[in-house]
Design a protein that fits this description.
The chain is mostly helical. It has 4 domains: 94 residues; 111 residues, DNA polymerase, domain 1 (Orthogonal Bundle); 131 residues, no CATH class; 46 residues. 61% of the residues lie in helices and 1% in strands. The protein contains 21 helices and 3 strands. A 3-stranded antiparallel sheet has the order 1-2-3, with no helix packed on it. A hairpin with a 7-residue loop joins strand 2 and strand 3. Helix 4 packs antiparallel against helix 5, helix 14 packs across helix 17 and helix 14 runs parallel beside helix 18. It is extended. The N and C termini lie far apart (118 Å). The model has no long low-confidence stretch (mean pLDDT 82).
Amino acid sequence: MSNLYCRTCGGELSKSEFKKKAQTCYKCNLEKYVIKVQTDSFLDKTFKMDWTAEIFKKYIDYVKSWDYSNDTVAIHSRNAIKLFKLAEQEFSSPKDISENWINHKAEVEDMKSKNKMLIKFLSSNGYISLNKKNTIMLQIERLIERSPENFQSLLKVFVGEQLAVRERQMMFNARSYLSLTTIRSHLECYTRLIRWLEEERPNINSWNTIQQEDIHAFLMELSLKNREVVRKSLLILFKLGLKKKLLTHIPILDMKSRELPLTIEPLSFEQQKEVAKIININIYDNPLESLLVSFCFYHGLSSKTIRSIQMKHVHIDEKAIYFEERPPLYLSELELKALYEYLKKRSAVKCPFDRKYLIVPLKHKFYEDKPVSNKFIFNKVKNLCNFPPKTLRITCFSTIAQKHGPQILVEGFGLSLTQASRYGKLEDHLIEEQIKDQRSYVEDYKEDHL
């Protein structure tokens, strides 16, 4: 009867443990294992090199710092042991380990879903450097390989031309050059068309057999907002194919882009008053949410910009937040109060002084020094004022452009000319200003001469 209970914790043993005449339960065995894998005796028996033992011990501490269960820690430790043993056989130092090698070995050893934590640990501690470029290039190559052979030649020429443009821009130190993600997104658009042709037009087996009505049928299945983007992307591909003599015709009309109707309308004046009231009411009870809504509503900050704000960018003495790619943001007294209240709550989170980003989750039990997600900001803003960040941002820009003209969005908010033109035509505002000046001149002239 003594075997019914665990000798360590006193808990009741399971039926399988009782049949095996076990003395301790599964949880206690896991706890012992997690403690054992970090002992010097275990490390000496398991690893031949000192550097693998040292990195493995640090890795277990890293996994445990996330407050995972002993079961999860044990899974990560077993996978890490396999990889580090293989690393000892192939490398003489941790500098030789790469992300591609870890992914390859993890796939061979059937632990593909367990290596992300290890890669994150090794990269954050400087043992390996993540090569994002290689990852995107592999994705581009896979997109081409998965396409039918008759379609691959034009896709390869397109990628080659785009890479040549990118290299030329980098050689001349362009301020912004063509990114690999842009090339990949264009390629995804083309492979999407190919998949649609395979399903809906199985008689088409090459680019030259595509007709104008086929492209129109494909575009009609897309949303209105996405249709124009895909059309222009396809036009680029077909023009290149004709230039390289891989196509005999362009199966799409080259017409001027149309201005699409607004998909998101700015808030009415009454709705704006409600949002402003919500911000003021929630400064003390929900300072984080109030601050996020204020950033979007009064300053037109995007979620990407908000999540990238670091503590070093905030200058409370100057009542400003400085950015690298746009003019500074100056805080009002109400926003300063919300910031003070938020910083009080932020100081109570885990490792507050080690976090470089201003916006952090206040109720998250795990700690990782990385920016919050766009979804996090979306949920906080939407739950407080019932409007998404994008609607608040459009309202901010539309209101300011109507009163002061779209040019101020370029100079004061860091928008490009193309973005600012969406909220009003620059020429129209300049004409109106000129008319006002002429009218005032005529009125002054009349007063002086009458």
